[in-house]
Every structure is written in C-alpha cells, then in structure tokens.
Design brief:
- By secondary structure, the protein is mostly helical.
- Helix content is 82%, strand content 0%.
- The chain contains 4 helices and no strands.
- Helix 1 runs antiparallel to helix 4.
- The longest helix has 45 residues.
- The protein is elongated, with a radius of gyration of 23 Å.
C-alpha cells in the first residue's frame, strides 16, 4: 500500500505564476461571455429599429405583416439569448438592464407614433428608428469594449 505525501506549498515565484495563469483564464472566460451579449443587443436593436421603420411607413395589411415580422425576429433573439447566454461577463447584468431601459424609453414613444401614423409620420418614424439604432449601437459598443478587457 502506497501512502501519498501531501504536496508541498508552491514557491513564491510559482505561486505568482499560478495566480497570473488563473487571472488570464478568468479574463478570457469573461471576455468570451460578453460577445453573445453584443450579438443579442445588435440583433434585438436591428429588429426593433427596422420593425419600427416598416410599421411607421405602412398601413393596413402591410402594417400587420411588418408587425408579425418584428415579433418573429424578437422571438428568435429571445430564444437565442436563453439558449446561448448561460454565463455573463462581470457587470453585464447592469449594462443589460441599462440597455433594455434605454431601448424601451425610445421604443414606447416609437410604438405610439407608428401605431397612429397610418404611414403618414415619415419623419418621426425615421427619427425614432434612428434613435433605436443609436441606443443599440452605443450599448453594443460598450459591451464589446468590456468584452475585450
């Protein structure tokens, strides 16, 4: 029967090297976790921006087609998010909440405008779709920058 002797403590240099490796692994892990969030932000922002534009420039049956298309893409993005984003980078939850709040601060007035526009509020629709795009790109850029850290 063999008895294993307990491992000796690492030397200070070896301990520093092990800590550096652990830190590098942690950085890579959280960086990799940030990129699905960027994809979800850009996808969701594209869907609501283009859906807003389509609904604001149409009326009648075309409006309904644009609405169904918007809802289908939002559902795809949500399913992707639930399936892929199992882990999140440090701080991503706060940024995600900020993104959703900022998106809906613009999205609610956009839906009010397009719901009553009947394809007539072209300038307002275009401005609100551009604002949705700006919010999305801004938050995705912040998330991408954080993912590179």
């Amino acid at each position: 029967m063999t008895t294993e002797t307990p491992a000796s403590a690492p030397s200070p240099d070896e301990a520093r090297r092990l800590l550096a490796e652990a830190h590098a692994t942690g950085r890579l892990t959280t960086a990799a976790a940030g990129w699905p969030a960027v994809a979800v932000m850009l996808s969701l922002g594209t869907a609501v921006s283009m859906g807003t534009l389509a609904m604001g420039l149409t009326a009648g049956a075309n409006y309904l087609v644009a609405l169904v298309g918007l809802l289908a893409w939002v559902l795809v993005v949500i399913v992707f998010q639930l399936a892929v984003m199992r882990s999140t980078a440090a701080g991503a939850s706060r940024r995600w909440i900020g993104f959703i709040v900022a998106l809906f601060v613009v999205y609610v007035p956009a839906m009010i405008v397009v719901a009553g526009s009947q394809g007539e509020a072209v300038v307002a629709t275009c401005l609100l779709a551009a604002a949705l795009m700006a919010v999305t790109v801004g938050f995705a850029a912040v998330e991408a920058r954080e993912a590179r850290r």
